[in-house]
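anyone seen this seq b4? input:
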Amino acid sequence: MTIQALEPVTFGEQPLRIEEVLLLANRQVPTQLQNDSAFRLRIAKGAQFLDSLLDKEGVIYGVTTGYGDSCVVAVPLQHVEALPRHLYTFHGCGLGKMLDAQATRAVLAARLQSLCMGVSGVRVELLERLQAFIDQDILPLIPEEGSVGASGDLTPLSYVAATLSGEREVMFRGERRAAADVHRELGWDPLVLRPKEALALMNGTAVMTGLACLAFARADYLLQLATRITAMNVVALQGNPEHFDERLFATKPHPGQMQVAAWLRQDLAIDAPTAPLHRLQDRYSLRCAPHVLGVLADSLNWLRSFIEIELNSANDNPIIDAEAERVLHGGHFYGGHIAFAMDSLKTLVANVADLLDRQLALLVDVRYNHGLPSNLSGASAERAMLNHGFKAVQIGTSAWTAEALKNTMPASVFSRSTECHNQDKVSMGTIAARDAIRVLELTEQVAAATLLAANQGVWLRSRVEDARPLPPALAAMHEQLSKDFPPVIEDRALDGELRLCLQRIADRHWRLHAQ
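predicted toks r here
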């Protein structure tokens, strides 16, 4: 489907959903700015009200004062116009890797939607230019590191403010370019930010919120994929599908847990006759899979609520209420909800890694895999002593799982007092969001490895005499996987296939339960 074929995402008074942020982060949908006269008038009123206060020489934080601890320092009116540029200039100290294109688009979307709430005191022209950056795919180069999550994502968002002003660098049409050159090429004049506009751009939670949207979407797909992998492993290990009986889960009715059990029943066609059981009760990584995955499933609703409220909120300071002609000084830049959501998500996701890692350990071990070859090798008896199948893959999976578990230390409890003790309690939300993305990367690696191993196990099980046919959903999955990932008979390096599998996961290639 082409980008032109989809309805555009509209930035304005209507709330955005995580799914819309994901679509535009992947360049799958066009965007537009709400353009009715009432909306434009509401935005313009905020900037006009600020101008009227300047005419009266009112004291406005970040407009006629310094920033943060320097709020007690008055800025003479003749210097007010220079203050926004100083703000994004001295915050140009970010380090670490640059956010990738997908994440940068999500950040721009989160910042624009927040400013569209109409209480940040910015001009319509600023919203139009920010939307044009998204539309033209002009991506500021934003360093990942340097935010403590309050006063918002000041340092990373300074790269957005600076590039809108024609400074620093952007990615444009696949090239790293000076922002000033891109403005000239498009026939644009760089913005000269008005009082409060640099602060409005930077003093918010857009980086952590954009990353949180992407993390949520990845976790949602991972939940479904882990359930499918579990079903394949029940078949490969000749497990007991009665562990997922609907009557059993009615006695402990956590909705997400019940949903995962229902997906497993669908995948396993549980109403069909079952083979004789090796064990009355399977080991926990199979038997308790709905209980492990169900915690993530049940948490997604409140995670969505935290993220989408933040996405559709005014989260800078001060808030400009032009209707009541008031300037409200507060702390909406504090990213505590996103910090807690991301600290929670990374723990939930790491538990998925641990579950799948344990399933893979059962698959490769002849003591527990109920007759499958050692390390899932498909080699003939004559060559079995030379071949080691998935032995190293299981070691790698253990390493990725351990790293994912290690990264579950909550970032939000590591608040630091900064900026002359003005920012003396901060959220660490951006670090939590980056941690969550890293844990997702590692857990997707575990999922890729366990999926290929499960597919190998299903193939090996199908080769025995009087093998039972696969349930329809798993048969379709096995057929799709076999096109990209042939059985491992003689040892081969699997890194290329693992990377392809990761790309398939990133693309949400397989249609799973909730799609």
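The first strand starts at residue 9 and ends at 11. Residues 429-462 form the longest helix (34 residues). kinda curious what u guys think
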